[in-house]
Amino acid sequence: MLVMPEKFLLHVCCGPCALIPVMRLREQGHDVTGFFYNPNIHGAAEYLRRREALEAAAVRLGLPVCYLDGEYNPRLFFRVVANREEQRCEQCYRLRLERTFAFARDNGFQAVSTTLLYSRYQNREAILARGRALQEETGIRFPGEDFRPGWQQGIDLSRQWGLYRQNYCGCLYSELERHAKKLKRLAGTLETTPAVHRED
Ligand code: SF4
Q1: Pairing state of beta strands 65-67 and 111-114?
Q2: For the segment 85-123, what is each residue's pLDDT rounded down to a tens digit?
Q3: Contact present, 122 and 89 (Cβ < 8 Å)
């Protein structure tokens, strides 16, 4: 199928997830710019670590990236998901994609995508539904490519490049879920650590 080259704004969640989407879109001839907007990330230190990984990946890829650091506001994320924790991922996609489309509209981009479509762990249908609704609203294309076939290739390359690979999705809820088993196990034991004696 013939694809017309477009000016593409790619929402990026982290460095490792950016590799395959950038390569695939470029293979189709698109002019890709990354867009790092992720107020869902829990903890400023974690935000900075993921940002640094993206910077390193961007150097390797020669990828221009817009970082919306001034809008890193986890309170906004918590406001958006408050009392809707069961649908938190849908709200999280909405928050990030709405901002991406607004930026694309204000800066003359013709199409939008997101690295969330690379992950096997995200809700692809919910991402597509939100992206298509925004496409209708704005007239900016959201082709919704499936980047998942490059999953293992992306992991191998990110390891080879020494990029930081986080072990939870991003928000506080996902971090708690990541450690849920261990926390549950610890909660079932009454453990007392030995006292530390100081000689002074
Ligand atoms: S699990 Fe991931 S996608 Fe879902 S709300 Fe948390 S950060 Fe967002």
Answers
A1: unpaired
A2: 899 999 999 999 999 999 999 999 999 999 999 999 999
A3: yes
Is 192 part of a structural domain of the chain?
no
User: Is residue 195 situated within a structural domain?
Assistant: no
How far apart are the CA of 96 and the centre of ligand 1, in A? Answer: 11
Let me know: does 109 contact 7? Beta carbons within 8 Å.
yes
Does residue 88's CB lie within 6 angstroms of at least one atom of ligand 1?
yes
Choose which residue among 87, 122, 171, 176 to substitute to test ligand 1 binding: the one with the highest number of ligand atoms within 8 A of its C-beta. 171
Going from the C-alpha of 19 to that of each of 5, 23, 38, 140, the distances in angstroms are: 19, 6, 17, 23
Determine contact, residues 29/38, Cβ cutoff 8 Å.
Answer: no
- CATH for 166: 3.40.50.620
When pLDDT is averaged across residues 28-39 and rounded to a whole number, the result is: 98
pTM > 0.90: yes or no: yes
